[in-house]
Design goal:
The chain has a single domain, classed as 3-Layer(aba) Sandwich (Glutaredoxin). The chain is built from eight helices and four strands, in the order βαβααααααββα.
Length: about 240
C-alpha cells in the first residue's frame, strides 16, 4: 500500500543574528509549533537580512551607544528600553545580555547560514541559527569575528575546512543579497519577517497565538478536506459487492 505524500508547510524567516526581536520571534514560533499537530510536516528555512550592512566587520563598540545615537536617545534611555526587552525575553526563556553586546557586521554569519543550508539542509541551518543567536545575545560574543564564527559553525557540525574556505572568500554573498532583495520585494521593512507557503506574511515577533492561527490556516489551505455530496448510495465495499 502506498502512503499518501504529505505536502509540508514551508516557513521562510527573514532575520538577522543581531536582532533581539528575531530571537524572541523564533521562540514564539517554536511555542506555536509545540502545540501544532502537524509540526513534523513544517519546514523552516532562514533567509538573510542585514540590519546594518555598514557595521564594522570587526566592531568592538557596545551596541547600546550605537543604537542610542541612531535613534536620538540618551544611553540612559536606551538602557531602560533594553532592560524592558531583557525582561520580556526572559518570559520566553532567553537570558539576554544586551548591555554587553557589540555592534558588528553580520554578512559572514549569513554566508555560513547559507553554507549550512546547502550542505546539511534546513535542520543544520536551524542549529547554526540558534547557536549564533545564543552566542550573541546570551553570551555577548562577537559574531562578526571569524574565530568565533568558526568555533560556532564547527560545533554544530559544519566542516572546518569548508567554513574557513567560505570565510576567506565572498562565497554566498550573492545569496545573501538575493535574500535581502526578496524581503524588500515582499514589502518587509524590518525583521523578523515570516512567510508561510509564499502566501501568508507575518511581520514582527507576534504572540504564539498568531503563529498558531497562521499555521492552521496554511495547513488547511494546503490540505483541504474532501467535501462529499449526494449522501449515501449503493456501492461496492472493501469486501466486494453484496450482489
Amino acid at each position: 500500500m502506498v502512503s499518501a505524500v504529505v505536502t509540508p508547510v514551508k516557513i521562510e524567516i527573514w532575520s538577522d543574528v543581531v536582532c533581539p526581536w528575531c530571537y524572541v520571534g523564533k521562540r514564539r514560533l517554536e511555542t506555536a509549533l509545540a502545540g501544532f499537530e502537524h509540526a513534523e510536516d513544517v519546514e523552516i528555512v532562514y533567509r538573510s537580512f542585514e540590519l546594518d550592512p555598514t557595521a564594522p566587520v570587526h566592531g568592538h563598540e557596545l551596541s547600546t551607544g550605537v543604537i542610542a545615537r541612531k535613534y536620538g536617545r540618551s544611553e540612559a534611555e536606551m538602557r531602560q528600553m533594553q532592560q524592558q526587552l531583557i525582561d520580556l525575553a526572559a518570559e520566553e526563556g532567553l537570558g539576554f545580555k544586551l548591555f554587553e553586546t557589540v555592534h558588528t557586521n553580520t554578512v559572514d554569519a549569513h554566508r555560513l547560514l547559507h553554507l549550512a543550508l546547502e550542505t546539511g539542509g534546513p535542520a543544520l541551518q536551524r542549529e547554526l541559527k540558534e547557536a549564533l543567536l545564543s552566542a550573541y545575545f546570551e553570551q555577548a560574543r562577537n559574531v562578526g569575528e571569524h574565530d568565533v564564527l568558526i568555533e560556532i559553525a564547527v560545533a554544530v557540525g559544519l566542516d572546518e575546512a569548508r567554513v574557513r574556505e567560505v570565510l576567506a572568500s565572498d562565497e554566498y554573498a550573492a545569496a545573501v543579497a538575493a535574500d535581502v532583495a526578496q524581503a524588500r520585494a515582499y514589502g518587509a521593512t524590518g525583521v523578523p519577517f515570516f512567510v508561510v507557503d509564499a502566501a501568508y506574511g507575518v511581520s514582527g515577533a507576534q504572540p504564539a497565538e498568531v503563529f498558531s492561527q497562521v499555521l492552521q490556516q496554511a495547513w488547511t489551505a494546503a490540505h483541504p478536506v474532501l467535501q462529499t455530496v449526494g449522501g449515501d448510495a449503493d456501492a461496492c465495499g472493501p469486501d466486494g459487492c453484496a450482489i
